[in-house]
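Researcher: Next sequence.
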Amino acid sequence: MKAVTIHDVAARAGVSVGTASRVLTGHPATSARSRDLVQKAASDLGYRTNARAGSLRSSHTDTIGVLVSDIRNPFFADIAQAIEQKALIAGLATIMCNANESVTQQDRYLDLLINQRVDGIIMAPQGGASGRLSLAREWGMPLVFVDRVIDGSEIPSVTSDNDSGIHTAVQRLVEMGHRRIGYIAGPIQTSTGRERLAAFESAARDFGIDPDLVFHGDFQYESGLAGAANLLDLPHPPTAIIAADSLMTLGAALVCRQRGVRIPQELSLIGYDDEPSFLLLDPPLSVIAHDPTRMGELAFDMLMDVEADRAVQSVVLPTSLIERGSIGPVERNEQ
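Model: Next structure:
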């Protein structure tokens, strides 16, 4: 049976979700009529208030939720591990959840975390403001975004400077003589996907190269495979490829190996995120690097500040190009 939500109670009572939330959490700014309607609707529907909004701020469970985009991605695993370790030192338990790059799955876990009455949530949001995320905000759940944001949201965040790393990578490839640079993009439904694609297109225009050699992926391994295959199959394929995250980078590297494409002699390759496994590739992979451990640690500190009603400033961490053996000068006849 589907669990009764505050949306169901509000609809039954004929009031807004905000009004229903205030009644059920005992907020004084409600009318007697609204209280009667909401309480009757909650009783009729069998709505359980004790596990939801009424306890979000009135008690502590010494538990936080961490909701990452894809637990298979080593970048998010590093973020989650950093949060978990700081939480452990602080005497807090951590509930780890995996959105799998899906708003639907994200909302299922938000429901779970709210029902578990966690003291706060650190999350990398999928897409825009979903219903469950808006509900968590209405109920006063302490929230912090990590790596990704929602445009226009005031939720504090720890993110990376996506523009500078991409711009530096394109500039370095152009300096090596590359004029056809392919890009495997992340989903534009995410802030990181949009920002990194915009950074690539801007850098391409700045350096006078084609900004349209783009394959739109989804930050997952399979789209790295598809993206590299698509770009290499063009009538005039690129001489260099930049992939916008670590999983897509691995997919692109495998396609090159399967096809016998020599790196960097025939194709230069730059990935995103500096993972230890990239050093095992032959040659080692050049990457746009940022610091997931620092992101996780800062996100935890922010959540503690939000929970304590202290002022919080969002943070943007730097990115940098780490140059290794996977990039080199383009051959003259390929320019």
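Model: The chain has a mean pLDDT of 89. The two ends are 63 Å apart (CA to CA).
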